[in-house]
Fold these 2 entries.
Entry 1:
Amino acid sequence: MPIGRKDKDEEGGGNPFSYIERTAVLQEARIFQQTPINPRKCCEILTKIIYLINQGEVISTTEATETFFAMTKLFQSSDVIMRRMCYLTIKEMSKMTENAFIVTQSLTKDMNGREDIFRAAAVRALCAITDSSTLQGIERYMKQAIVDKVPSVSSAALVSSFHLSKGAHDVVKRWINEVQESCSNDNIMVQYHALGLLYHLRKKDRLATSKMVAKFMKSGLKSPFAYCMLIRIASKLLEEEDSGHDSPAFDFIESCLRNKHELVIYEAASAIVNMPNCTARELAPAVSVLQGFISSPKPSMRYAGAKTLSKVAMKHPSAVTACNLDLENLITDVNRSIATLAITTLLKTGSESSVDRLMKQITSFMSEISDEFKVVVVRAISALCQKYPRKHAVMMNYLSSMLRDEGGFDYKKAIVECIIAILEESPESKESGLSHLCEFIEDCEHTVLATKIIHLLGREGPKTLNPSKYIRFIYNRVILEDEAVRAAAVSALARFGAQCEDLLPSILSLLHHSMMDEDDEVRDRATFYYHTLAQKQKVLNSAYILNGLTVSLSGLERCLQNYLKEVSEEPFNMKSVPLQAIATEETKTAIAPTVRKTKEKTPASRQEMYAEQLSRIPEFKVLGNLFKSSEALELTETETEYVVRCVKHTFDKHIVLQFDCTNTLNDQILENVTVQVEAGDGFEVIAYVPCLCLKYNQPGVTYACVAIPEEDPTEVTTTLSCVMKFVVKDCDPNTGEADDDGYEDEYPLEDVDITVADHVHKVIKPNFGAAWEEVGDENELEDTYALSTVNTLQDAVKNIVKYLGMQACDRSDNVPEGKSAHTLTLAGVYRGGHSVLARAKLVLKDGVTMQLTVRSSDDVAAQVITSAVG
Amino acid sequence: MEGVLEPSLYTVKAILILDNDGERLLAKYYDDTYPTVREQKAFEKNLFNKTHKSDSEIALLEGLTVVYKGNVDLFFYVIGSAHENELMLMSVLTCVYDSVNLLLRKNVEKRILLRNIDSVFLIIDEIVDGGVIMQVDGCNVLDQIATRGDDIPLTEQTISQVLQSAKDQIKWSLLK
């Protein structure tokens, strides 16, 4: 298209469009009205309009409408290029005006005309200006076009229908027969589009979808694109069915690994890799085709192969080991994305000796790769640290230099999480890790990260050899940062003050400054901590600064509301508030961020749910607040007639046994179900709450309430034997209608043990030492035991935690390898709200010997805990 | 579930042609990943900075898979989701490039491209419609659109083109 302004071309960097301007171009569009039409000139103007839209220029509704009207005239000329440009302009401008329908007539004519070159484009332009209200008018033509013998027309109609089905699903659904017919079209693109549309129209109907897949799996397809689509549909079906991988759909996907098109092979391999719970054997063929990909000369193939292999390495590192040699060749790939993927994969699968070499390689081009890959690298390092603890120091160096580099929030967050995980795992790296983090918060724009690090400093800093060096970093934050960071910094300072006596005067004066802060929260915290610290009492420090509240916040809210409802002379009792439940296995998630988001439902909500259920039963109103609920115990084998599970709820003076019963016989209805409990050791059953009717497969609940003996408060353990009693009525399995008369029957259950752990609630004491001093030695008991049944310290620790039902503090539940002595510290709250602390010194020598020291605010609690072992 | 693609015809998120300053010559965005012109330009800038120096065909950027090809003073990009089949995106890129190459008779260069920008618009429209791949064969694409028969005379070829074609020829002769 010679524009005839060659001199200007050179000036504008060769771009003839750099000087055009919207209003001028739209003015020029007036020549559309002239007769005879000058196709070349008009074409030039249309091009300019499209170019402007393409550059992001906004064209107003009036301008667009005017242009549309002018353009109707151009349909009189049959110049091919100009007509094509008209269609394109219509598509581009269709959403800018409401009067686009004025070209409907002309487009319909072209769509059904003789010129094949116009028809496909006309279909697409027509559908762009059609909405659900006007669609019916062209429905007949669309149906014809879908099955048109010209492939481009058929494709255009199918794809346009696909776009239209967003707003007019029901109308498009009526064309399903035509779409189905096109699925057997010989043209590869038509087949792909038809299959895609067919699935889209049927995807709500599982049965139809699986029939469709079965049909095409049998008949086969021509188009590689259609194959990819079918693989995706099949793997989605597999995922939903959740059945094993023995189905024909899986076989089909596997057979696609032998397709002649790389496109299809890759799609099949990545579908297999992405399947949840794939076994190593099922992965093997996919891995071997991917191995072929990574030695391809084409970068995109290598990238695709390396990316998918790195996914495999996350779940099945051993499956990828066979490719290690090929991956090694990729670590110097000019495409840094490929090199990064190869290195991170090797870090997961390789041996300890190769780590240094790989890390050196990757740091050399860290600055060239995008943030997404940097996060991948950090994750790989994180996983590596877990695997090879000896590499901590080396890794820490890499991480700190990465922390200094440029990067976005996700990248920095990943690094910080990784460093924190390392310094919590290995004491040797603690000091260096903390100082790297200190340096980082000096210049950190992310509030979330800064507060997280400051909190960590407050917790770990005072325990280091030279705590004073961290004060400066923290106090700088108080001066420079926003409220949230300042508040965190004040709390951290208070922790230093509470633990390091020599620093106290300086901390007090720093806090004094913050008492004038402009933010309420910061000021309140500073004032509170200042006055607490000024008392110089260790007990206060431990209770209000170092170890904080252990109650559940929602529980506290509820208790306070209840307290305010009924006028009472008594002061509010903190001990009646339910305690914060502790999520187990939380420590591991920090170091392996990939496995997160699995269990979001916390045990806290579970206990609250029980509390809510129990409070609705009038018999249990008098028992007070729920103290603790145990895990559910199976009292039957799983495959029996009746399945019963028991949850023990501990109250102040009672234990309520909740029996969840399920009737697995469909020809029986059980009525008046109770579980009779035979108590001993001074325990006494005081009430039963029966389950009135237990139908097939509908779980029911019955309760038994047991009083804990009061004469001897140390007598807290017993074994209760249980028998389920009920009236059986036969019923019709189909209708569920029961006979009128039944007979009494009983069913023996397994015994329920009441253990010490049922009377103890786990609490976290972030600073055990301070808490130990806080409780004092008033009720201290000490005893020595020989634990003959265990052979390792780790087993001993596990058993002690289980028997006592207390929370291990300061990560003391992890026994470092190769040690022969270990100290385990435990914290808990005994029934009635008395805090209990225990320190167990363990020595490994022909079995494990334990010296257990227990401190508590209540002497009974101390006695009970001491008696639990042995 | 992460990684498993919803089976859909929507494959391509955007097609871009940038010049050697990173300026937009042609841009089609097919979904709302970058809804405003400002976000689009920011993305293009980032994209150009990350890709114009290395000739490496594929990259992951802002959570998207980008396949690209540079030639003298032009850069062609096809962009899809990070979970998309990379080879599928690659076939689109190859088709875009082949069609343009055929159209411009191997003179794939900014000045010539701009002179034929109307046909290039039509080519892109033939290859991808609203994010759905329509066609992956360059010859078929050119059959679908009509081109003006005006020749590009040899005298119009610039030094850089001559150099480029010479380079190509040398490369080929070496490969044989």
Note: Confidence is low (pLDDT under 50) at residues 150-157 of chain B.
Entry 2:
Amino acid sequence: MRAFDYARATSATDATAKAAAGATIIAGGTNLLDLMKLEVMAPEQIVDINRLDMNRIEHTESGGLRIGALVTNSDLAVHPVVRRDYAVLSRALLAGASGQLRNKATTGGNLLQRTRCGYFYDTAMPCNKREPGTGCQARDGFNRILAILGTSEHCIATHPSDMAVAMRALDAEVEIESATGIARTIPLVDLHVLPGETPHIETTLDEGDLITAVILPPPPGGVHRYRKVRDRSSYAFALVSVAAVLRIESGKIASCALAFGGLAPKPWRVAKVEDALTGQEPSPEIFDKAADILLADAKGYGANDFKIPLARRTLKAVLRESVEAAQ
Amino acid sequence: MSLHTTLWINGETYALDADPRTTLLDAIRDHFNLTGSKKGCDHGQCGACTMIVNGRRINSCLTLACMHDGDEITTIEGLGQPGAMSALQEAFVRHDGFQCGYCTPGQVCSATAMLEEVSQGWPSHVSEDLEGPAPLSEAEISERMSGNLCRCSAYPGIVNAIRDAAEGGTT
């Protein structure tokens, strides 16, 4: 690990000021310190926000939930209101990492964790995300875990979070404080960006921005499912995951929210997939049509070709199970 | 840069003056000579370094000592000693919950805190019901302990030891 200066933030304003001056923010540190040991990341200054008052889960005036950025993945997963009203989020969190990591990893840090692409982690390899302009060897290399949607010729990395996939299905928003002291709230969909020609730019955050909370709208009701397919049954990243929140009325799909992990550089959600299902009577044919729309632009890179049929089967299984549970 | 950090480890105060790069694991092993906690992968993948910090099990290799100023830490030395083992340690011996023993301090620390999580009603990935009771089946123990690897593959003994200790038995 490269040497760095360490400072403990005394306030959110202090943290954003230090971050704007070049410091890297540390919260749980489970991803950042791993990357620093490998020298994939080598910050010269670290600002520790762990003592800031951002670890509460509170009801919002509109009946939703405000989750402080420092709430650990464990605390969020087991919170009674989350278990009861946002089960898809509990399920996604419990499907991620290990008990030890969930006790340390935070809500804000989970959103900002980096890809687990092997080429990003290996400093002996070129990687456009780690060193812009050096190229991407994942496209023709070991890409079993990498993306089939939203990729570019410069990067096919996936976003590794389970939590963010469930939050995407729940229409979460992200509360951000800037170095100029201005707070703003953006939809989660607008936090992460696709790689395009600049895979090293992963979010719309500016220098000095601090995620302070995630806001969930009022409980959506319906059946909640999170299905994660991976290479071992616990403590592994998703090959494909599906978050579903679905309601049935009078034998038809009244509403559905579907978000996908393991497929793309950001939590993936396609309105046309949901449109194709909404108002329809559930059937294998309509589920196939939804999968057709989801995967219309999917592109495999060899070792990850299997994700295209796997995503279809996982989506159909989740829809079938959700409908059965809803009826 | 050298930082001063005070840690409460197994009920005693320890003072550290060290480079901020020092992980909690390295501080406790190399600076305080409490070498029961083990360094396996040093990347949070194996769980050999598991300690209980402020009541929660964490990977001590993936956190900096300076982030834990004033925190209360329990290592394997704090759970039991030769001749005065914890119930879980005795169960590991009784059920052959190890072979080489390298992962064992992490397994025991992890399982100790895991049983506390269960007693607080935390569900797991394999729990049928997020809100209902989750009986401590083999599947539940395996899932909840998936952050601790055993390269000798003593898993059947580990699972039996944990279940035995949880039931308060002596079988």
Note: Residues 159 and 265 of chain A are 5 Å apart (CA to CA).
